[in-house]
Amino acid sequence: MTKTNDYSASIRRLPEEKLREYIERPDGFHDEAILAALWELASRRPLLKKELKLENEIAERIKTPELIVYNDTVSNTAVIQSSIPNLYSIRSIQIFSVLFSVFAGGILMAINFNRTTQKTEAYKVLGFSLLYSVMAMLIFALLGTQSPILSVVLNLIGAFLIDELFWKRVFGKEYKFNKQQIWTALLVGLIVVSPLLYYMIKSGTLPTF
Question: For the whole model, what pTM was predicted?
């Protein structure tokens, strides 16, 4: 009988390369998600010795979770919190994409990839978001408009594509992370765009609805 859990349905669609990520970087995923990945691999090929060992370790850990302390509060968990990366959430990326540009959202996503040692993906998302932002500017130039509504729509589409093409493809739905606060990055973004905003107000070129 095939072993399954709550993660099996989404794990089943992944290629073997992605399944191996769950095994090679187990600190970044929930134990149940790793088990689902191991079980899916086992349905495709015999598990290696180290994979069988990992399966047994996780199964035992789930039965007897570690007792650790967070902010003086004792809780039962099998997760070592210090190993979980601090990442900008997809919501933060969406906010930056709408307020500034898709390229700004892409920078946050690239920071996420850099923190998870996936530099190739960081370059990919930077290239994609920059190209998308340039194409958006060309659309405005061709239409002869600076409509804020169109800008918001295009930026939301760009943020959606970053989520679908990068976050969900690389991290998936089960990736475990601490949410990075957005305030410092937001302040930097406001400082960067404030001279341009001031110029647009003074020159009377500020877009209107």
Answer: 0.56
